[in-house]
Design brief:
heterodimer; A: mainly beta; six-stranded mixed beta sheet; 12 strands; B: mainly beta; seven-stranded mixed beta sheet; four-stranded antiparallel beta sheet; 11 strands; globular
Chain lengths: 114, 114
């Protein structure tokens, strides 16, 4: 079975500051990794994903995440956040074989203030 | 219709009542999912369907049932609601089953069971 740990339930940060949202996973098999974002009163949207190849993946709005197999981590980073980045961020993992399902972490609420 | 729609948006329900949450997608996705989102627990999979005519149990299926009579619709039924089923329910879909596929989420249904 797979599990995801997001240790930070809430991360407050000032606008234009850098941020890192931490994600660690546990799995006995190789995995796919995802970050989803949930803006207030909306459903989740895919932010970025790692399936294979380059361990550094980027989103269109400046976020990036790096797959670190030895540390079983997939931390999400952004060098300069905006007020509009305020949202809840979910890390998710899925085994890379068969019709496996996503397992989500408990989420990290990013609060960006002026 | 564009993407995934859910109905109702919110509902207050007396314990013991039967309730069906509706979910419709117009993307011709084969796989569909129902999650519940609870504070501090993230998203947990209730039931899923890899293709029309098939369904499967997720992490927290007890007290819920689903059907998948066609590609577009995936209703979730609470046969006899209990207060512990108070939650926000999200329907999602993906082109195919399998963890590498992006899941697209509906806007959610906020259910309160009294």
């Amino acid at each position: 079975a797979q599990s995801v740990t997001q240790l930070d339930s809430q991360v407050p940060v000032f606008e234009e500051a850098p941020v890192e949202l931490r994600c660690n996973y546990s799995s006995s098999v190789s995995v796919y990794l995802f970050w989803y974002v949930q803006y207030p009163n909306q459903g989740l949207q895919l932010l970025l994903k790692y399936l294979s190849g380059s361990t550094l993946v980027e989103s269109i709005n400046g976020f990036e995440a790096e797959f670190n197999k030895s540390q079983t981590s997939f931390h999400l980073r952004k060098p300069s956040v905006h007020i509009s980045d305020t949202a809840e961020y979910f890390c998710a993992v899925s085994p890379n074989t068969g019709f496996q399902k996503l397992v989500f972490g408990t989420g990290t609420r990013l609060l960006v203030s002026p | 219709i564009a993407g995934i729609t859910q109905a109702p948006t919110s509902q207050i329900l007396a314990a013991g009542r039967r309730m069906t949450l509706r979910c419709t997608q117009d993307m011709r996705h084969n796989a569909m999912y129902w999650y519940r989102q609870d504070l501090g627990l993230g998203l947990r999979l209730i039931h899923y369907s890899n293709t029309a005519g098939t369904t499967g149990k997720g992490e927290v299926p007890d007290g819920y049932s689903v059907s998948r009579a066609n590609t577009d619709d995936f209703p979730l039924t609470l046969a006899s609601a209990v207060p512990s089923q108070t939650s926000v329910y999200f329907c999602a879909s993906s082109l195919e089953a399998g963890g590498h596929n992006e899941q697209f989420f509906g806007p959610g249904t906020r259910l309160t069971v009294l």
